Structures are given as structure tokens and as C-alpha cells.
Here is the input.
Amino acid sequence: MSKTTLLQKIQDRSAIVGVVGLGYVGLPFAVEKAKVGYRVLGIEQNPARAEKINRGENYIQDVDDTELRRIVSEGRLQAFTDFERASDMDVIVICVPTPLTRNLTPDMRYVERVTRELAPRLRVGQLISLESTTYPGTTEELMLPILQESGLRVERDFFLAHSPERVDPGNQRYTTRNTSKIVGGVGPESLEAATHFYSQTIEHVVPVSSAKAAELVKVFENTFRAVNIALVNELTLLCDRMDLNVWEVLDAAFTKPFGIMPFYPGPGVGGHCIPIDPHYLEWKAKELNFNTHFIALAGEINRRMPEFVVEKAQRVLNEAGIALSKAKVLLLGIAYKKDLNDYRESPASEVWTLLESAGAQVAYHDSYVPVCHLLEQSRESAPLTPETLANQDLVIITTDHSDIDYDWVTQHSKRVLDTRNATRQVTTNLERVTLL
Here is the structure.
């Protein structure tokens, strides 16, 4: 199949779209493509997830339950646990995890495994697009040589691109459709094919000169956030020494109408982007004998925050004559972000680990995460009742979910350590509240 035929199939929606990895990125993308008429075949190696998709059952907060059921019932979305249908797909979009090792180096096993599964099934006329966030060079240096082991040649027989995901879980304003999409190909033919594909369902596609440039765009975006979050976290540490309210300082600073952008401190950074992606760039830079000082320092400061939360908790308890090793502590929120059920890399988990290491008895409440797995144990969310709150020596607000009445929490708690400024509107019992 020629590029012209591929472009025509993309245009008339007869192209079969494959999505590898039906998680927070892949499933919303698959649904968006199926909604406009493409037939989508998902590859999800978690059998439970694949079965849920085929039953029309949703497990991703950003996906509409009704839409998912409809497109599955209409036969426009189907999930598999293997790669046997890969050769039937005209476009294959890869949305698999790209974690870090314990040494903060890229763990590319998922990308490499998928690429090796695709290589023997690759056929003429296919477009492969990697959306997983990664270091600059992954698409051309890791994926391309493996794919060309098939005997097919890129730009002539198949097309290869990188188009980094820009998913902000829980964001109701910016979705897959209206978030600008960066696209970089390994050559002009690949760029044209990928740009045409993404333009069918995304309002604004931004082509760049290469796959490597597209990869760098994404890691820079998240590094920008990590560095600025680290700046306000460091300011928080300084304000603690100066006995100043960091939230007051920031709120006043952010009234300036130019030259500044709001970022806020917290108990640390979480999710699948900020704690991970900057280290991809840091690692790649070291290959080039270049030290990324800002990135390293930002990571150091952000990783310091859970320890600071525990230190501050210990101070609050000491003032009440209670040893941390004998304290009962409730974490209010385990998700890494407000109004979300995702607790990957959540700083609350690290705070919990540190508290337990110090001997504290720890529980949590999070209506978005009724069960979590921490330290190889399954933990259940405690009911949020006056009795639960009154039974704690300290309540730490680690996630500022909107469904919580913080005035009510403060009323029924002995002591509250607020790491998110969630008690901003509270007007009574303020003597019980300590801000980060």
C-alpha cells in the first residue's frame, strides 16, 4: 500500500487504527478515533482491562462511560491482549509506560518489547507513531533499527513518527481533541502521514522538523513545570525558616499581570510526568557530556518535600506533647492530584512511608481511591466521620479534593497540617491549622 493509499484511507475513515496500551493516554485516544468513525483495535496486555473494554466497562476517569459503551456496541472498538492483529492495522499508535529505574535512568523495556512484537508483523504502508514520553532519540535510535529488521525501509515502505501525548488527567477544558498536538517524523514522508492522521481528530497539529525535536518538546514542557514547582517548594522551605506564610507571598506575587506564572508548593510531585520525564533529559544530556544543573537541582528539591512534611508534622505533634512514633495520623487524599483517582508516584505515598518508618499509625481517606496498594499491602480508605477525625492526633491534607468540606474537617480534628492550602476559606478553628 502506497503513502497515497494510506492518506486516502485515513481521510475516508476506512483506515484501521491500532492503539497499544489502553491506559490514561491510550484509551481516551482510542475513544476519540472511534467516535469519528475509525475502527480501532486496542492491544492491552492487562487481561482484566482488555475484558472490561470488550464489555464496554470504563476504568479511565477522562473517558465518558456512555460513549465507551456505544462505540464498543457498534463494533468500533475492540481490545486484544496480543499482537496477532497488528498486520491488519494501517496506523499503530504506541502509548506504553516509560518509567525510570531506581537509578533514575530510562526504563525502555515496554517500548522495546512492543517494537520487537511489531517488527515481524510490519507490512508495507503502515504508519507507526510513538506517543510515550521519552528521551530525544528514542524513535530513531531504538525503534527504527528494530523495525527495519523486518526488511522494510522507513520512508519507502513504512512511516515512523513521534507525537508526544499531552494528557492532563481530570482537565475538563483541555481534552485530546482541543490540545495542540506536536508531530515529528523520521523523514518528510513520515511527517506528512502522521500530520494527516492526527489532523483528522485534533484541532491544531504542530509539525516539527524531526522525531527527536518532538521528543525534546515534551520533556522540556514537563521539565519547565518541575523546575518552577521546585522554585516555589524551595521558597516554602525558606518561608518556614523566616516564619512567613508562603501562600500569602505567592498570592500577592501572582497579582502581577506580566512576567510571572502561577505555580504552587505541595508535599512533593506526583503522577506519570513531573517526577519522571525531566530525568530522561538529564540522562540523555550526560551521554553528550552535558550536565543539566537546573533539572538535577529541581529533582533534589521536589524529592525533599515529603521529608519536610513529616518534619513539620513532628513539630506540630511535639508542641502537643505527642511523639510521632506513638501518633495516629490520617492522610486526607492519596491521589497525586485533586479530583483524580490516580495515585501513581503520589507524594502522599512517600509521606505515608516516612510516617510509618517513624512508628506512626497511619490511615487515609480518599473518596477517589477507595483502595490503594502501598508497601506491598492493600489499604482501604477510612470513612470520613467526626469519630474518625477526632480519633487522630494529626490530619494531614495531602490532596485538596473538591468534595471535602475543610471547614467541617477542621471543626472535628484536633490538629490539621495543610500542605495544599485547602483550608484557605476556613474561618473558624484556625488555631488548629498549620500550613506547609
The chain has two domains: 3-209, 225-435. DSSP finds 14 helices and 15 strands in the chain. The CA atoms of residues 56 and 70 lie 8 Å apart. The mean pLDDT is 94.
